[in-house]
Amino acid sequence: MRAYIHNWDSLKHYGINCLTGEACGYNMRLLCDLTQEGSDLVSGMLGLKLEPFNPNWNRDAVGSVMLFRGMFDDICKYILFAKGFKYVVKAGNGTWAGYDDGFLETQKMTLESLIEITNGALYQNYSSTPRNTHAMTGRTT
């Protein structure tokens, strides 16, 4: 299995609906409505309990948040790992792709060939959970 994130609009599939950049007085952030899934992903990515978010702009959302434009790559990487993909590639054209553990084998590909085909950078998920666990204490966030 695989998944692709091409741009901010692609994040709608994960509950993050980018509405406008005009809401930020510094033109640095995008106003985004969040569904419950989007709220869970953004909260998890930031390692914060952000419930409730600011009031939502549209009725399908549970809240809104301002996300920095420069966070796009990190959001994509986090979402794909949180959705269970083992390999995440940022292709040369800026598209993010997630591949599950068996995808390369079924396509008779290696990690090196995947990087070469996509002209991209590979990130690998070594964890089975998006939670962070402190090595000394065992506390999770």
Helix percent reads 10-25%
Question: Strand order, biggest sheet?
Answer: 1-6-5-7
Sheet with most strands: 4 strands, antiparallel
Radius of gyration from the CA trace? 16 Å
Number of domains: 1
Mean pLDDT score:
87
Number of helices: 4
What low-confidence regions span 5 or more consecutive residues with pLDDT below 50? Answer: none
CA distance, first residue to last residue:
29 Å
Described by the principal axes of the CA atoms, the overall outline is: globular
In percent terms, what proportion of residues is strand?
A: 15-25%
Task: Give the helices and strands as they follow along the chain.
Answer: EEEHEHEEHHE
Number of beta-strand segments: 7
Alpha-beta classification: alpha+beta
